[in-house]
Every structure is written in C-alpha cells, then in structure tokens.
Specification:
Blueprint lengths: L7 H5 L10 H12 L5 H8 L3 H14 L18 H13 L5 H11 L6 H10 L40 H8 L1
Length: 176
C-alpha cells in the first residue's frame, strides 16, 4: 500500500488540543451530580458537557478525591531515541551536510538497520543545531502579466501554422 504524502498546508497545521475544563468547573459538576442529585442529562443540557465527561469526573472523584480531577501531567520530555541512533544521525549530518532528514532516515534504515522516522531525525538535528532554515522563495511580481495571459479577452491571439511541401518526384516514384 503506497503512502500518501501530506501537503505542505496540512504539515503546517498544529494539532489543536480540545479545551480542558478548569478543575473548579469539574468539581462543581461532580458535586451537583453527587450531592445535589442533578441528573447527567440535565447537567449536559445546561452546561454543554458530555455525559461521558461527567461520568469520568465522578469516577475519578470517587477514587482519588478532588486531586483526581486535576489535569494529568505529561511525561517528561526525555527522548525515546537511543543515544547510539542519535549519535549516528548527528555523525551522518556532519559527514554529509547536504543530506536532509529524509535521506538520513533512509540511510539509517538501509545500511545500519536503525528504523527512525524523518520527523525524529529532524527533531534530533534541530536540538543539535544542525538544521538550516529553508530559504524563502521570492514572491512573484503579480502586477506583471504572465507570458500568455491578458486581462481582457481578445487582447492576445496566437496561432501555430505548420506548412510542408511534398515533392513531385517522390509521388511519381511511388506510383510506378
């Protein structure tokens, strides 16, 4: 199965994290449900929260108390890439500065049997300060018309004429 390349527009988009509800709001929802006796359906309708969220909050509150409603901390920013692989990436870039992340990932997979992704290589090289920013393409002069483009119909006509001659000597030979 062939992999599809992502367009540059989709690569530029950052993943949008859904809005996390504040801890005070979560605690208020749990207390309204448990202590005041409001139904999930009513809370969902009034506050625009899903029933599943309320159910998760109630379960976390019952297990861990108010601390269970705190947002979970992300794992530390330690890299999962082994140091040997990271060192190979850096060495390849230093030996061959013309190689980009895609080629380095490919070389690591083919010759060193170290499967890494292009994104991992780029991230590692960026951390080491070995990535140069791509040069910006100069903007096109939009005021100047393109070669065969005009602003109004019939401003430019083009025709291609091809002529050829047949010699009579060839025709006479073919007839005989």
């Amino acid at each position: 199965m062939a992999k599809r390349k992502k367009s540059s527009a989709s690569r530029a988009k950052k993943s949008v994290k859904p809005h996390a509800y504040p801890v005070e709001f979560r605690l208020r929802m749990v207390r309204l449900f448990l202590e005041e006796g409001y139904s999930k359906a009513l809370l969902c309708e009034q506050f625009g929260v899903s029933a599943h969220s309320i159910q998760r909050w109630v379960l976390a509150y019952r297990r861990y108390g108010a601390e269970g409603l705190e947002p979970k901390q992300r794992a530390s920013g330690k890299s999962k890439v082994p140091t040997e692989v990271r060192q190979r990436m850096v060495n390849l870039k230093k030996v061959h500065p013309e190689y980009g992340p895609r080629r380095i990932a490919d070389v690591l997979k083919r010759f060193f049997l170290m499967p890494t992704s292009q994104a991992t290589v780029h991230k590692t090289l960026s951390e080491e300060g070995l990535v140069k920013k791509a040069k910006r393409k100069p903007e096109k002069n939009l005021s100047k018309p393109r070669f065969f483009e005009r602003s109004q119909p019939n401003q430019l006509w083009q025709s291609d004429i091809m002529t050829f001659r047949r010699s009579l000597e060839r025709e006479s030979r073919n007839v005989e």
